[in-house]
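lol ok so funny story. i was supposed to be doing the assay writeup but got distracted and ended up predicting the structure for this chain instead. priorities right. anyway since i did it might as well share w the group, maybe its usefull for someone
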Amino acid sequence: ESPTSPYQEIYLQSGDVRDVAPPDTPYVWVAGEVKTPGMIPYEDYLTVYRAVLKAGGVSDFGNLKNVELVRSENGQKKKFSLNLNKIQHGEEQDIPLQPQDMIYVRRRIL
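and the output, tada:
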């Protein structure tokens, strides 16, 4: 596992709460530097930008210019790099999400 991987082992401690979707519920994951990382129920017309907003927005340490979308297609993982700053200003197209997509907001380098 590389240090830049959006997938990491998380160890729960007493008092932690873990979201688990019912098996038939479609969802997307929002992780990294957002205020409320976790599962977002999938709905029609959900986009990367909207999902990040549903996760409370980017944290103080989040990098709007360095967001990754990970999607499984035909058993292969595909990665898309996005600039939410450009999406926010209409300079880039927002990407519609599919169930089980994962969005990862990277940390800003200070």
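Helices lie at 48-54, 84-88. DSSP finds two helices and five strands in the chain.
back to the writeup now i swear
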